[in-house]
Design brief:
single chain; about 300 residues; mainly alpha; Mitochondrial carrier fold; 13 helices; about 70% helix; L-glutamate transmembrane transporter activity
Length: about 300
């Protein structure tokens, strides 16, 4: 059990950053499988499921092939998670009854980091797929810096924000569902109104449950975002001109079921990611690192 400490802005940023880095390290291989499953087109079913994708990835690219794009995520997930969690707390502090609006604002704030982060991550994750092996015979190896330079050279800063609309469509509803649901689940673990402390395992469970539900709800938007942000296309792969065009073509050529590709993988990624995030956030790792204690916080 722990005492939930009131956080300063700096501790919120530290907690969010640490939580994001720990979570990403734990679940990144599943995220890679999600991306590759979502990018599969009809008639090109190279992976049967998540385990099949991971096994083929290890066979063709080695163990570290499962961590393609992890460096980008580990670099940018700190500001991304810090912005998301801190923004939600900031907007929520204005009025407790505005939980959904606070989540919406948090989702809008985080896309400034999320969009370029996901853009680069998807290129790196998809570059070593079996699709590339079948077409070219060799594993395509690129770096985040090479992709960034090419995008800036050819499309400018806006190139890094390809799929921004789809990212907003995913992250705003996710935050609207996740934060209020987590808050209410977390509150159920309180011993009493006089003793609001909650066991760490309850924070973890609440984060996992709320995260997995929110992830599945917005999975169709995540599929659209992944398709739009995937720059390398095979000879027979479809290209898309925006969100509406992408939705229309997926529906016509692959059917409604295509919008749930990778949904189980995404739930498996998001559940522990946000479970870990909430434990770090509520335990108060940032407070510990900055030397805060219950005494000097309350007496400040």
């Amino acid at each position: 059990m722990y005492i939930e400490l009131p956080s300063h802005t700096d501790t919120k940023l530290i907690n969010g950053g640490i939580a994001g880095m720990v979570g990403v390290t734990c679940v990144f291989p599943i995220d890679l499988a999600k991306t590759r499953l979502q990018n599969q087109r009809s008639g090109q079913q190279l992976y049967k499921n998540m385990m099949d994708c991971l096994i083929k990835t290890v066979r063709s690219e080695g163990y570290f092939g499962m961590y393609r794009g992890a460096a980008v995520n580990l670099t940018l997930v700190t500001p991304e998670k810090a912005i998301k969690l801190a923004a939600n707390d900031f907007f929520l502090g204005a009025k407790r009854t505005m939980e959904m609006l606070a989540g919406c604002c948090a989702g809008m704030c985080q896309v400034t980091i999320t969009t370029p982060m996901e853009m680069l991550k998807i290129q790196l994750q998809d570059a070593g797929s079996v699709v590339a092996l079948k077409m070219g015979g060799t594993i395509i190896r690129v770096s985040a810096m090479e992709i960034t330079r090419e995008l800036l050279r050819t499309k400018g800063v806006t190139g890094l924000y390809r799929g921004l609309g789809a990212t907003l469509m995913r992250d705003i509803p996710f935050s609207v569902v996740y934060f209020p649901l987590f808050a209410h689940l977390h509150q159920l673990g309180q011993h009493s109104s006089e003793d609001p402390s909650v066991p760490f395992y309850w924070s973890f469970t609440s984060g996992c449950l709320a995260g997995s539900i929110a992830a599945v709800v917005v999975s169709p938007c995540d599929v659209v975002k992944t398709r739009l942000q995937s720059l390398k296309k095979g000879a027979n792969e479809e290209t898309y001109n925006g969100v509406v065009d992408c939705v229309r073509k997926i529906l016509r050529k692959e059917g409604p079921g295509a919008f749930l590709k990778g949904a189980s993988c995404r739930a498996l990624v998001i559940a522990p990611l946000f479970g870990i995030a909430q434990v770090v956030y509520f335990v108060g790792v940032g407070e510990f690192l900055l030397g805060y204690s219950p005494y000097n916080i309350y007496s400040a």
